[in-house]
Design brief:
- The protein is of the alpha+beta class and 400 residues long.
- Helices cover 31% and strands 32% of the residues.
- It is built from ten helices and 22 strands.
- The protein has helices at residues 11-30, 33-56, 179-200, 224-230, 258-273, 276-280, 306-315, 324-331, 347-353, 358-363, and strands spanning 6-9, 60-65, 69-71, 75-84, 91-104, 107-120, 125-133, 138-142, 145-149, 156-162, 166-171, 175-177, 209-212, 234-237, 245-251, 284-290, 299-300, 338-343, 368-371, 379-381, 389-391, 397-399.
- Strands 1, 3, 5, 6, 8, 9, 10 and 11 form an eight-stranded mixed beta sheet that branches. Strands 2, 4, 7, 21 and 22 form a five-stranded antiparallel beta sheet that branches.
- Strand 16 (284-290) and strand 17 (299-300) form a beta hairpin.
- Helix 5 (258-273) runs antiparallel to helix 7.
- The radius of gyration is 31 Å and the shape is elongated.
Length: 400
């Protein structure tokens, strides 16, 4: 994680040594005692700086903290923490230079950011933060980094390489889903509920499972006998969350308009970010991304599959044959499933592009097909910044 410390003379130190050599040479040639005294006074702070600077990075531990994922255009806060394990000497003015690399929209990006931890006492911890922003989707790598200190005079600088790296998934930029989309998902919930009730022949008195009481629940749904046994209020849940679900297929096809593909991925990222609303209604949605480097099977939109889906949206590439019709046939195995296809091409174009059996083409006619390339009424994207940026001037810092 850490490489050996290296101490180098700074440019200021080189200038200082050049002046010192001139004074020493003059004192020897002219035999002036005052110059000899002056050279001795100048040598002392140089070696003092050398010894103190070597101690600044001794017995210290660095940690980087950042979120697992972010969206394009959002500010990402990266925190550096330094722990001083020495018992007597504090650390002063430690500078951490962090390297940021990644591939965004087919462009290799390499930047650096710096933070300064001003003071960390013996046995204490110090923190400093900086913010960065990514304009496009992709994967960002942080590290390796370099920690250095030139305290107190700045004549020499000690450096230590921190080889620890971190990975950040930059998902597509989110936007705003239209009321038309909310009405569609609400109708999907109601259709799944009614189909599930007809299949089981359930009445209003039957229930699937019990869950804890939540604010806003109907008091009539409280199961008093089980609540008395458990010592807490339990509510009857009348819908099977596994059967009351629908599948969302993201079809990223090769298209002349690259903006339509990014708008499609932004809509999918917005749906994933707002998945908590479906969980409150007792429904479960699944999503699959069809394209190059796509998910092989629909994943549940929730805490377990969010990172995997966002990573797929961040790295997926357009493909002429995405396999969306084959995925539709696999998802239509259960009658309670509702399939919604988000695509940047028309349904007729998908049938023409993919060489699939006629049965799969017929199955595609029973799904809700949304072409975001020609219909902008489903989603309003947010405009990300045009260039990569990092805020490194006067980052927030704290120590303890």
């Amino acid at each position: 994680m850490y490489e050996r410390r290296k101490t180098r003379i700074t440019w200021e130190g080189m200038s200082f040594l050049a002046i010192l050599a001139f004074i020493v040479l003059g004192s020897i040639l002219r035999q002036i005692n005052l110059l000899v005294l002056l050279s001795g006074l100048m040598i002392a702070p140089f070696f003092f700086n050398w010894r103190i600077c070597r101690k600044m990075l001794q017995s210290v531990v660095f940690r980087r903290r950042l979120p697992q994922w972010a969206h394009a255009g959002d500010d990402v806060q990266v925190e550096w923490e330094m722990e001083n394990n020495r018992h007597s000497i504090p650390s002063w003015e430690v500078r951490v230079t962090d390297s940021i690399n990644g591939n965004f929209a087919g462009e290799e990006v390499s930047r650096t950011a710096q933070v300064i931890i001003h003071q960390v006492g013996p046995g204490g911890r110090g923190r400093a933060r900086y913010r960065c922003r990514f304009p496009h989707r992709g994967i960002a790598w942080f590290g390796p980094s370099v920690a250095s200190s030139a305290f107190p005079v700045g004549l020499v600088r000690t450096r230590m390489r921190v080889t620890e790296t971190a990975r950040l998934v930059v998902a597509p930029a989110t936007g705003t889903l239209s009321p038309r989309w909310h009405r569609l998902t609400s109708s999907s919930h109601e259709a799944s509920d009614s189909a599930d009730g007809r299949r089981r022949g359930s009445s209003s008195d039957e229930f699937f499972s019990l869950r804890a009481w939540q604010h806003g629940d109907n008091p009539r749904m409280v199961h008093w006998r089980s609540s008395a046994k458990r010592g807490e209020l339990l509510v009857r849940q009348g819908v099977d969350p596994v059967s009351a679900r629908f599948n969302i297929l993201v079809d990223l096809a090769a298209h002349d308009d690259a903006t339509a593909g990014e708008r499609l991925l932004g809509m999918a990222a917005t749906i994933i970010s707002g998945s908590s609303g479906w969980q409150r209604h007792g429904a479960r949605a699944c999503m699959a991304v069809c394209g190059c480097d796509a998910t092989p099977w629909p994943l549940v939109i929730g805490p377990a599959g969010t990172l995997t889906l966002l990573e797929c949206l961040a790295t997926v590439r357009p493909a002429s044959n995405t396999g969306v019709l084959e995925m539709i046939a696999r998802c239509r195995g259960k009658t309670s499933d509702r399939v919604i296809v988000l695509s940047n091409r028309a349904r007729e174009q998908a049938n023409a592009d993919e060489a699939v059996p006629v049965t799969q083409v017929r199955a595609a006619t029973h799904v809700q097909w949304i072409d975001v390339a020609t219909d902008n009424s489903w989603f309003a994207p947010a405009t990300p910044p045009d260039e990569f940026g990092s805020t490194i001037a006067r980052p927030t810092a704290s120590s303890s």
